[in-house]
Amino acid sequence: MNLDALQLNMDPLWPALGLILSAMLVMTVDIFNRGNRNALLRKLMPWVALVGVLVTGVITWSLIGKQVVEFQNAAILDRFAVGLDFVVLTALALGILLSVNYIPRVNKQEGEYYALLLLVGAGMMLMGAAIDLIVLFLALEIFSLGLYILSGLNRHDKYSSEAAMKYFLLGAFASAFLVYGSALIYGATGSTQFDAIATIVSGGKADSTLLYGGIALLLVGLGFKVSLVPFHAWTPDVYQGAPTPVTAFMSVGTKAAAFAAFYRVFLVALPSEQAVWGNALAVLAVLTMTLGNLVALRQSSLKRLLAYSGIAHAGYILVGLAAGTPSGAEGALFYLISYAFMNMGVFAVIILLEKAGESDALDKRAHGLASRQPWLAAALAIFLFSLAGMPPFAGFFGKFYVFSAAVQGGLSWLAAIAMLNSAIGAFYYLSLIVSMYFRPATDESAVAAPIALPLRAGLVAAVLFTLLFGLLPGLWIDFLNGAAGAVQVAVK
Questions:
Q1: N- or C-end of the chain: fewer Cβ atoms within 10 A?
Q2: Is the omega angle on the peptide bond into residue 392 within 30 degrees of 0, that is, cis?
Q3: What is the pTM of this model?
Q4: For residue 434, how far is the Cα from the chain centroid?
């Protein structure tokens, strides 16, 4: 048998395999900690997981600049995939640091938690590399099943159980839509591989009825994972009910994986149908960012505010996708890495406020925070300025690149609506900053909680990179140089 003809190049799979092997190592350590009798091993597990993420990062870094290769026409290694891997690894590393002191308070099964977290990350990475509809579905299910379990990790909290159940039931429907959509596209083209689909569709040989039905169903399935309106109903309840580190990781990782799938499916498999799906995505982007921002204005819970804020940010990223240009892919990757640091930084602050005994009400959390915990307030202000898109923070350039891609793609009207929505979003972000610095505290009994070293490290890293990517956006852009080209080559 000629192995070369089978294209058994493992490079596209090494990042995901690195996380899978790390998860197996965590489970091995957990085996020797039966009944949580060994305190040393219990404390060691998050660091084993973190080392696994760092080692996977080194493996991924070694793949930069390598020739674009495929594994059996099912997965691809290019700059886009590598960029997505780094977004997921960033979310994983910060999620682990946020979990070290939090998870033992809600669940004693720490080994299972960190193993699931790593396996979820592996599924997200595989989804970004998938160039086959079957592999795409398998990757989606790998990380979705793990997230269903992680959302209900706090079994003593009824809201956590409710979040897991809602996420599971609605996620199952979304998966069904994705499967049916894939089946229709297969029926229209006779293939599940993206390059073959692109060739058949561009040649006019596809069954239009089945093809357009498949595109519509794929939009529903992927739109659920990204929290696009009107498929967003699960997001606020899951964000509020899931353990905070899980919510933080899910808010970034799920978006990164699902948007990577969006770009692969539409820019690689269906570029010739951009006139059809581009208009649909433009409408969804307007609905998503508008509803997300308007409903966020009315929230009294910080977690629910971040949920609707996350919906709005999904709309912003979708603006770049609707343009259907390679620059939109590059802009989305910059947006996602920026969003990883600033959004998970906000959740790190929430964890610290929870430790201080403060409730989930906005007035309890925000009013007078600067007088009680000035450094914490300063960090939160940086993240909020960045989420609002204020220069010179990373969030400003994330929006700039995505909106510019829309203008270049002939969707100036969509970029204008996005900028208007960004101004609405800035209102509730800046309102929180005003509450922290210019309003008296409503609960003076809350004292500053000591910041554990892992959480402090995660918070400092989030602040530094939010500032770094804002002051020197070229660092990430230079790294991504070629990502758009890789997508362009795939389209051709």
A1: N
A2: yes
A3: 0.88
A4: 28
Report DSSP letters for 416-445, one per residue.
HHHHHHHHHHHHHHHHHHHHHHHS--S-TT
146 in a structural domain? yes
> 270: which 2 tokens?
């269906």
Task: For 14-35, write each residue's pLDDT tens digit.
Answer: 999 999 999 999 988 888 766 5
Neighbours of 464 (CB within 10 A): 12
Query: Is residue 3 one of the residues assigned to a domain?
Result: no
Instruction: Show the tokens assigned to 25.
Output: 């190592």
Residue 266: pLDDT over 80: yes
Q: Is residue 99 part of a domain?
A: yes
Task: Determine the Cα–Cα distance for residues 383 and 459; give it in Å rounded to an integer.
Answer: 10
| Domain total in the chain | 1
Phi-psi region of 472 (alpha: psi -120 to 50; beta: other; left: phi over 0): beta
From CA 284, how far away is CA 307, in angstroms rounded?
Answer: 17
Domain coverage including residue 481 = 9-491
Cα 388-392-396 angle, rounded to 5 deg: 40
Q: What is the mean pLDDT of the chain?
A: 83
Cα–Cα distance, 251 to 306 (Å, whole number): 9
Q: Which residues pair with 75 in a beta bridge?
A: 71, 130
- pLDDT for 31-67, tens place per residue? 876 656 666 777 888 899 999 999 999 999 888 877 7
| Residue 55: count of CB within 10 angstroms of its CB | 14
Residue 202, in any domain of the structure: yes
Q: How far is CA 12 from CA 7, 70, 132, 392, 432, in A?
A: 11, 7, 13, 35, 43
Please state, in angstroms and rounded to a whole number, the distance separating the CA atoms of residues 94 and 455: 9
**C-alpha gyration radius of the chain:** 22
Per the structure block, which two tokens stand in for 444?
A: 């003076």
Angle between helices 326-355 and 483-491 (to 10 degrees): 130
Model pLDDT for residues 60-73, shown as the tens digit of each residue: 988 887 777 778 88
Q: How many CB atoms lie within 10 A of CB 292?
A: 27
Mean pLDDT, to the nearest integer, of 80-103? 89
